[in-house]
């Protein structure tokens, strides 16, 4: 029996006695600077596991009173910062050696990724649903400032040795019915503690989940889905709907170099998540949460190829004698063969890899659904060998947990191009894009709807063409995944979607309505909003022509959506034309069909919008 197998069996036996089979859901990782310990956020178990890289086992678990949403270590490894991913969030300051929480630091709504300033005096915390960063003075433990960014900051990195921070915003902001819709990377000057710009990603960029810097700080790499949302969803082949990408950003001038596809012409690499560079800068690693694999990219050759194209060279995506065509820099985001010969796809032994970290010649990936740590040995005689270290027993999958896993699993999709989470990221919510799904005709794209409460508020789809959400789930698997749904799998996904719970609104104060929202609550009834949006579902389950249909939808009734958690699902109206709720109530409400608001004062409109956003 090999040492690796023996240790894995010991770990599995220890895990059974320690966890009793409850899901752990490892997601975030942090390695100490000496390469001796790895810290693993076990989110649903509400604790951090300490993995000793010399003893090759978990040596400690640090229990927490909330959900660990992000990890960061001080430069001397004496402090571990753990974000409590809760609506009333905080950051725990942990002594990693003793396994004790020493203090808490203030943060915003659902804090996650954290980055320290170069001098170690300041901690920057991404507050996902406040759309900002907390600036925390570590000496005093005080939050001294908030820095507004774009939408849902979920990952961040500092480009060494500079004071520049790069922040990945999960979703596009603004209306969805224009010529372009894409998420951005925000740039922060850590010394001045202020935002100094944004880097727009290509049209269709959404689900920006990972970000990393090269060891020399010259480049930033952001992983995301690149949606082809302006095409009708009639096929999947060759990236017709969703492709997977890594965007390369040059730090010196804060410019997008190019966006490289991670798929192949006949095999998708869905849902890229974690990204990291090797210490020597030779390799770039990307974890694919949908296809459960790792891309190992020759970073040196990747940049050589990108540099040649940027200089005006014309390359070929295949030898001309084999039918290859010319390739320029502008073609790269559409070239499914660009990484041919530069990348190796390594299948991982678990399910749902999320964050990754490189330590020496090994790459570690947190495998969310299999409660394990994937290890890819990339050096020496064992180059490329993979193994899995169980963090507990084989997890017991409840129907809801199994449905969640299938929702994120692209292997059931034809050629593995996408999972349900590709269009419904962030716990089955929205990608902020318009799609022409074809279930009610072609040529009428509609904004992606959140699946929260979809089963409790029939019918489904904007035009109500599916009688129930159960029907929509099966139709989606057949017509969007291009796979014949198995009833057991579809039923599990129904159970998962029914289990979703709304997140408390960031517009509330300590969980209660603000004074403005309280005034708006009265206006909600007076303006007639409650007639079509009565509580507690905040929909009457009926359809109306509200005058916003265009093209073949003109004059057609549209399903009344629930307003629960509407603060999270911008843009608004069936084609995403309204960037804000206030625009719904004013700019796009000339006939008072979204409530009688035309005679309200601006203050009253603001109060009404505040109430709606508090639901």
**CATH-derived architecture of the domain at 402-499:** Orthogonal Bundle
Structural class of the helices, strands and pairings?
alpha+beta
Task: Bin the helical content.
Answer: 10-25%
Weakly predicted, low-confidence segments: 1-20
Strand order of the largest sheet: 1-2-3-4
In total, how many beta strands? 34
Specify Rg, calculated over alpha carbons.
Answer: 24 Å
Q: What is the CATH C-level name of the domain at 402-499?
A: Mainly Alpha
Number of helices: 11
- For this structure, the CATH topology of the domain at 402-499 is Cytochrome Bc1 Complex, Chain D, domain 2
What topology does this entry show?
Layout lengths: L2 H17 L6 E6 L5 E6 L4 E6 L4 E7 L4 E6 L6 E5 L5 E6 L4 E7 L4 E6 L5 E6 L4 E6 L4 E7 L4 E6 L5 E6 L14 E6 L4 E7 L4 E9 L5 E9 L14 E9 L4 E7 L10 E6 L5 E6 L4 E6 H12 L4 E2 L9 E2 L15 E5 L5 E7 L2 E6 L4 E6 L7 E6 L8 H9 L12 H4 L1 H4 L5 E2 L10 E2 L21 H11 L7 H13 L15 H12 L2 H4 L10 E2 L13 E2 L21 H5 L16 H11 L3
Antiparallel strand pairs: 1-2, 2-3, 3-4, 5-6, 6-7, 7-8, 9-10, 10-11, 11-12, 13-14, 14-15, 15-16, 17-18, 18-19, 19-20, 21-22, 22-23, 23-26, 24-25, 27-28, 28-29, 29-30, 31-32, 33-34
